[in-house]
Design goal:
single chain; alpha+beta; rod-shaped; 12 helices; about 65% helix
């Protein structure tokens, strides 16, 4: 627009009235400078209030290493990440948050709908790395851990949520491992115990049969004391039932050997039954206790307490009991190691302010501009109304 055209820029006063010139507009703005100042102040206040809504000014991030957890396990356990109620309940159970902070966390989680924005899986090789490599490595899909990245309006709350997120990942991974051990353990050991009982029943029957054959052969040997001499030089195959025609003494020795084997097998089966019975008792009680616990840490503590009680039972003192106890101890030690050492921070939670210049200047300039424009239009309208009020009301 040319300068000479700016001389007659304004709003029409109606009924062929004079146009508001640029000079009149400047004079009007000067007279309404207080109104303009108020409008600018209101716009700046709105811009300042909008900054936290545009982007959380504080960020806290960390990397949690999960080398003992496969990606398949993480995907299976990560269903807990979609449970916002569980995360809020876990954060509440830590005792590190006030009621107001819990309300803020609950509101942010509901707004996100999931924890994926705070907790993301990490891989050995990312998509960006693959583009720079001549060929895709074999371990490109190896899962190494999770990245925790929390953005909130409070630096202290961001730090607390980042720490709670790390503990939450540790907790549901440990809880998932516990369920993967205890629930199948109940079914598997119950099945093995049933098989052991069936094998004991069969072995008892075979022992009875062999005992009766032994008694009958002993009577036969007593009735024919010289029968073994009749066939000393006779060659008889022991296949296809021909062993029945062996001398009674030879058959008696064979039955005695069979009895020895059956008794040995029975001792093994009874020992295995005692071991399995102790394992079934442990897993059934463990199943009930982990269902009552709210977190993975509480489940692990409940298993440790149950294990201490099982160790004191009289059934644990025998050879079979000691084997069962050692089997449980090995698994518990792996869970303890997973909870204590195998899931750890590769980089500790780091806190820094994330207020960028553009994210601060843009809302301030926008608010200032809107406030000034609003004040200018209001001043023009007020001046127009003052000059034309009589004419409009006369109609």
């Amino acid at each position: 627009m040319k300068p000479e055209q700016l001389e007659h820029v304004g709003a029409s006063t109606g009924n062929g009235g004079d146009l508001l010139s640029l000079r009149d507009l400047v004079r009007l703005m000067w007279r309404r400078k207080i109104l303009l100042g108020v409008g600018a102040a209101i716009g700046l206040a709105c811009g300042v209030a909008y900054i936290p809504l545009l982007s959380a000014p504080f960020r806290n991030d960390a990397v949690l290493q999960l080398q003992a957890v496969t990606f398949q396990e993480y995907k299976r356990y990560s269903a807990a990440l979609a449970d916002e109620t569980r995360f809020v309940a876990f954060a509440t159970s830590t005792g590190q948050f006030s009621d107001g902070e819990i309300a803020t966390v609950r509101a942010d989680v509901r707004r996100m709908g999931t924890l994926d924005k705070w907790i993301r899986p990490l891989f050995t090789v990312t998509k960006v790395d693959v583009k720079d490599l001549p060929e895709t490595p074999k371990d490109s899909s190896t899962f190494t851990g999770v990245e925790i990245d929390v953005e909130l309006n409070s630096a202290e709350l961001a730090r607390k949520v980042a720490l709670a997120s790390g503990e939450y990942v540790r907790d549901f991974v440990v809880g998932g491992r516990i369920y993967d051990w205890v629930l199948p353990g109940v079914a598997e050991n119950l099945a093995l115990l049933s098989r052991a009982d069936l094998a004991i029943t069969r072995t008892n029957f075979e022992l009875g049969q062999a005992g009766r054959r032994r008694a009958e052969l002993a009577q036969l040997v007593d009735r024919f004391p010289n029968a073994d001499r009749i066939s000393q030089r006779q060659v008889i195959s022991v296949q296809n039932g021909a062993e029945k025609f062996l001398p009674p003494v030879t058959q008696l020795i064979g039955v005695e050997a069979e009895l020895v084997n059956l008794r040995s097998q029975m001792l093994y089966l009874q020992r295995d039954r005692e071991r399995l019975k102790l394992l079934v008792d442990f897993f059934e009680q463990a199943r009930d206790r982990i269902r009552e616990a709210r977190t993975g840490s509480e489940q692990l503590a409940a298993l440790n307490k149950l294990f201490s009680a099982i160790e004191k039972l009289p059934a644990s003192n025998g050879e079979a009991g000691r084997e069962a106890i050692e089997t449980i101890r090995v698994e518990l030690n792996q869970l303890r190691g997973l909870h204590a050492d195998m899931i750890r921070y590769l980089t500790a939670p780091a806190e820094y302010q994330r207020v960028r210049q553009i994210r601060v200047v843009s809302p301030l300039l926008l608010g200032l501009g809107i406030g000034l424009l609003g004040a200018i239009f209001f001043a023009i309208f007020a001046d127009w109304w003052r000059r034309n009020r009589a004419t409009i009301l006369a109609r």
